[in-house]
What we know:
11 helices
Amino acid sequence: MKKTLVALGFALGLPAILVLLWWIATIVSPSFFVPTPGELIVTFFETWFGPRLWVDILPSILRFGIGVVIAIVAGILLGMLVGLNRDLRAFTEPVFEFFRALPPPVLIPVLLLLFGPTDWMKIFIIVLAAIWPVLLNTIEGVRAADPVQNETSRSYGISGLNRVRYQVLPSAAPQIMAGVRQSLPIGLILMVISEMFSSSSGLGFSIIQFQRRFAIPEMWSGILVLGLIGFAVAAVFRYFERRILRWYHGLKELENAA
């Protein structure tokens, strides 16, 4: 119980301090462009707990979820394929480096011309941005497989899909999960940016509309929604990561204890 309270105190301590400093700043130097914490909370509930929940928040989360899932699955499958084949890795590396260097937002005008302002265009831009951390980390994770494990697998006649399932994938899993962790905020950022172009719904669209109408508290409340979504996504990821990599974290805890 005591350990839980301490952990909760550490988790809420810094946010409480920041809100207190924000509240003091709005009292000392009020600004039209910065609402007070109380005003923001009231506006948050009035704005987003109603029709906007179904029109803006849920469609944005759905597009984000579909895009990130496609990016993770495609990144892992393609990364495993490239990582296991040295010739294919040498063949694809220049192309990967070229497209990885392209900022995904600059592709939005091109995708608008090709697909129009559809949901699939927004999902596609999320996939294009979020796939690279997963893909590159998977390739490096496969390449970094323990040579002793590789030789042991060959000695026992473990090959093909069995080798990938029981030796390569578990060995690369920590680095793959690191790539997934990096892809989530990138997908969230591109979700917002894609909705700021030729869109009629979504969080990015609503925040831009609030800014253009000088609805400052509403604009800040949209930013608060994005922060809460990002926090929830990170919490869900940590939950699944702890279970997928429970053997890895257990090993680290034993090493630290020793």
